[in-house]
Amino acid sequence: MVQILILLFMAVVIPVVAGGIFTELPWGGGGKRGSAEGRGLAEFLFRWIGGQMCLWAGFHIICVPFILRGRSFGDVVKVYVVYMAALILLSLARQIRFLASLARRDKGMGTDSRISGKREKTGRKADKVAVVLWCCAGCLLLLQLAAACFLAYEEGDDAFYVAISTSTVDADTMYQKHPYTGGPVELDARHALAPFPVWVALIARLTGIHPATTAQVALPVILIVMAYGCIYLLGNRLCGGDARKLPLFLLMAECLVLFGGYSTYSVENFLLVRTAQGKAVLAAIVLPFLLLLLYLLLERQKEGVRVGAGSWFLLALTMVTGCLCSTLGSFLTCLFVGIAGLCGAVCLRRWKSLPLLAGCCIIPMGMVFLYFWMR
What is the DSSP code (8-state) at residue 177? Predict the structure, then answer.
C-alpha cells in the first residue's frame, strides 16, 4: 500500500502541482456551453498532463547527457529529484501569485457575479441521456484498465524494454549492458537518445516496485487514464462542452480502442498492450496533446488573442517529451508543428508565429542531427 501511495504521489500529485506553472493559461477550460464541473475537470486534466510533460521533458534533458557520458543511473535520480523539487517550488510560487491577483480582482467585482453563478447552478437539471452515456463510457474505461492489469499478452518488445529497465535498476547503469545476455554492449543511438525505459526504471527506484511490475501493471493504469484525458480535452473543445456530445465522443473512442487489435502496429493496440513503451506513449498521449495545443494556438490566433510565453513553453516541452518517447518522435513532432504552422500562417496570415514555432523545434531537430551523427 505504501508503494502504491508513493506511485500515485509521483504520477498524479506531483504532475498536478507542477502543472500549476501554467495556471494562467486559459487553455484548460471547456467550451462556452460547458458546465462549471466540466470546466473544472478539463482544467485538472490539463494541469495533470501539462505538468507531466514538464517532468518528462526535464528528465530527457537530464538523462541523455548522462547516458552519453557513461554516468550511473543513481546520478540521474539525484539530479532529477532536485529538478522535481525546484519545479514544485516554482509552481507553488506562481500559484500563490496568481491566486492573490485573482482575489484582488474578485474583490473589485463584488458579489453580483457570484450570486448569478449560484442561480445558474441551481437552475440546471441533469440530463438523463448524458448520465447514461457517461456511465457507459466509465464502464468501458474500467474494462480496459482491468484488461491492462489482469490479462497477459505476448509482446516481444517487452523482453527488450522491460529488461532495460530491470538492468538499469539492478546494475545502476544505462544502456551499457545487453538486455538479453547481460554482457557489455556499445552505445545504441536509437535507444540511448529516447530513454523512456530509464524513466520507467526511475519510477521503480523511487517507489520500490519491481521494474517489471511497474511497466506491466502499475503504469498502464495511469497512462491509459492520461491518454483518455487527452481525448477528453480534445472532445471538450470540439464538442463545445455539450452534455451529450462529449460522453458520446469518449464512448466512440473507447470502442475504437477495444476493437483496434486488427494489427499489432495500430495505435489502439499500442495503448492497451504496449502501454509503458515509449512509442505507445508518443502515439496515445504526446501527439494527441500536441494536437490539442496546436488547435488552441490556432484558435487564439484566429480570435486575435495574444499568445503568452507560457503557451510556447508548454508546446516546446511537449515536443521534447516526444524525443524522450522515441527517436522517431523528434521528427514527427517537428513535422506536426511545421504543417500546423504553415496552415495557420497561410489561412490566418499569422506569419510572426513561424519563428516561435521554429524555436520550439530546436531541441527535437538537435536530437535528429545527433542521432545521424552518432550513427
Answer: B
